Amino acid sequence: MTSNPLFSALARLAVLAILTTLSACGKQSDAIVSIAVHPTNPNILYVSTNERVYKTRDGGRSWEKFSDFSARRVTTVAVDPQLPATVYAGTMGDAVYKSPDGGQRWLPHNVGLKEHVSYVNQFVFHPDHSETIYAATTVGVFRTTNGGRSWEEQMTGMKEVHIVVTLAMSPKNPRVLYAGTTGGAYRSQDGAATWQKVNNGLIPAEVLEASLSLGVNTLVVDPVNPDTVYAGTTKGLFKTKNQADSWERIGQSLPDQFISTLVIHPTQNQVLYVGGRAGVQKSLDGGQTWLPMNNGLETLNIRTIVMSPLDPQTVYAGTNGSGLYRSTNGAQTWSRVQLATGPSPSGFTSS
């Protein structure tokens, strides 16, 4: 029987979800799925776990809890960079929800999204028009130009792979985007209207055709030199200096080659952080050498890392097993941030 690559990839995603839940020792609230920091107020932070979205207004001393997600899972959360009272949540099964009031009310914003969108993995905002948003989903890339009221598929040229795990946009040319998929990387130079596969040096074509054996978990464009892009994959870290025309392998000294997340310092572009199954690692030379930065972490299973947009020394780490951590000294030390909550607001509505 001939195997179906798309089915195999979906099966691997399902296994990964099961392993993620198991790694949380049975306590789903300890699995931090996504972190979003308010762009102008460092005391406001949104955190999503498998079941719900949390918000703090006082730097993590207290939290509000939005919805129990009894029939859904939250997969990502994002704050509109121009209208930060507007928050988007991606879910498993129910696609996109939007809150216009900082999380107090949530409404579905799914017109044009396929009914079989099983995961919304990430949102990326246009820097000048934040109502233009790109969504990475398990059935491809979608775009809205009206703040989520309607969505359209943007998959021309992306025929081989439909599961898009991550998206990245050039900070100096928003028409240039990169997509990380279960079959490597794609690039668009026309605002996602068309895509071109850019796997030279990343994954051999024969390997891709045989098994979809390398998935791109995270893509980040250098904020200072946008020709440089980093790709964190299931089998190592890669770097391009020519807008993904070709890739080179870096980070071979990392203790584990499964890269879940990566962030770059906004002005010191040689400073990188990656996270995965060996905790947080930091580079001061553009990814050539790495140092472990795990002092204070109770688990080394890192799912996401986010840097404060106002203070790059403040870094948040979401784990698969022991909740949320914060560092205020560039990851030299970490402290646990408890998601203690007060009364829960009404949560998501169905209309």
Structural category is mainly beta
Total number of β-strand segments?
A: 29
CATH architect. name of one domain: 4 Propeller
Spatial extent as radius of gyration:
19 Å
At the fold tier of CATH, the topology name of one domain is Hemopexin
Principal-axes shape call: globular
As residue ranges, the low-confidence spans are: 1-29
Query: Which strands sit side by side, in order, in the main sheet?
Result: 5-6-7-8-29
Total of DSSP H or I helical runs spanning 4+ residues: 2
Percent of residues in β-strands: 35-45%
Largest sheet: 5 strands, mixed
Q: Terminal Cα separation, in Å?
A: 44 Å
List keywords for this structure.
351 residues, mainly beta, five-stranded mixed beta sheet, four-stranded antiparallel beta sheet, 2 helices, 29 strands, 7% helix, disordered N terminus
Q: How would you describe this structure to a colleague?
A:
This protein has 2 helices and 29 strands. By secondary structure, it is mainly beta. It has a domain at 154-250: Hemopexin (4 Propeller), CATH 2.110.10. Strand 6 (87-92) and strand 7 form a beta hairpin. The chain is globular. It starts with a helix and ends with a strand. The model is unreliable at 1-29 (pLDDT under 50).
